[in-house]
Automatic annotation (TrEMBL):
<feature type="compositionally biased region" description="Basic and acidic residues">
    <location>
        <begin position="229"/>
        <end position="242"/>
    </location>
</feature>
<feature type="coiled-coil region">
    <location>
        <begin position="63"/>
        <end position="213"/>
    </location>
</feature>
<keyword id="KW-0175">Coiled coil</keyword>
<feature type="region of interest" description="Disordered">
    <location>
        <begin position="229"/>
        <end position="263"/>
    </location>
</feature>
<protein>
    <submittedName>
        <fullName>Uncharacterized protein</fullName>
    </submittedName>
</protein>
<feature type="region of interest" description="Disordered">
    <location>
        <begin position="15"/>
        <end position="52"/>
    </location>
</feature>
Length: 263
């Protein structure tokens, strides 16, 4: 943007100087014609011709001077055109860069929205797992009480078995029944313990996934803030686009004025 403004200022200065020189030259030549000093009108064809040889020499000298200035003006015109093309290329590159940054910002916002959605889902899943864990804790406490009761029953059963070791067949059958019940209780206790360990592992995995999603959300938010700061520093807001368009229009008009003068 600063390069375009500097270039426009240089063109304005050059055109203003050339117009001032042209106006002074035209005024002098017009005054000379009006006073009849340099020219006189031919009686045969009515054209304005040089009045004498000195006047012709002066006109030739002026023509040679103008021809010498012409290459310089052409080179200056080419240089200004090259600078204009360079400035237009830089402006186009900045515009493409801004579009890429805006596209990237849109993608990051979409990723952030997706991450927030996943975070909410993980939070809901965590709440469900937490309720299940609370239920499992209650069941574990109940199982612990049952386990204590079973231990006490086992002790009582062991004592009863020792007392009834030498009793009749009915006592032996009762012993077998108690042993069967004990094995069944142990199997149930083992199954409950395995279920509790599995649910604890699921809860741990869900907590890790939730922490990962939160970390991703924070990183995405930081990257979006960095791109927004970068856009503000480059002054690539819609108001800057309008100003750039006006400056480019002024440069084209000034270039056309220079071409008309050379022609």
């Amino acid at each position: 943007m600063a390069t375009l403004q500097l270039f426009a200022t240089a063109i304005d200065t050059l055109v203003s100087n050339e117009e001032t020189d042209n106006e002074e030259t035209d005024k002098k030549e017009t005054d000379d014609v009006d006073s009849g000093v340099l020219y006189s009108r031919s009686p045969s064809n009515g054209l304005i011709e040089p009045k004498d040889c000195d006047t012709l020499h002066t006109l030739n000298h002026r023509l040679e001077r103008d021809f010498k200035e012409l290459p310089k003006l052409k080179r200056e015109n080419k240089r200004l055109e090259a600078e204009l093309r360079k400035s237009e290329s830089m402006y186009e590159q900045e515009r493409l860069t801004r579009e890429m940054q805006e596209t990237r910002l849109t993608e990051l916002e979409q990723k952030l929205a997706s991450a927030n959605s996943k975070t909410r889902n993980c939070q809901e899943n965590l709440e469900v797992l937490q309720r299940k864990l609370n239920q499992i804790e209650l069941e574990r406490e109940r199982d612990q009480r049952q386990k204590d009761q079973l231990k006490q029953k086992c002790l009582n059963t062991k004592e009863e078995l020792e007392k009834s070791k030498y009793e009749n067949d009915n006592n032996r059958k009762e012993k077998e029944r108690l042993q069967k019940n004990l094995a069944q209780y142990k199997a149930e206790l083992k199954q409950k313990t395995e279920e509790l360990q599995s649910d604890k592992a699921k809860l741990t995995t869900a907590n890790k996934e939730l922490n990962n999603q939160r970390s991703v959300s924070v990183k995405l938010r930081q990257e979006i803030d960095r791109y927004e700061t970068l856009l503000d520093q480059r002054h690539l807001r819609p108001r800057d686009q309008v100003d750039s368009g006006d400056t480019q229009g002024e440069e084209v008009e000034q270039t056309e004025t220079t071409d008309n003068y050379l022609n």
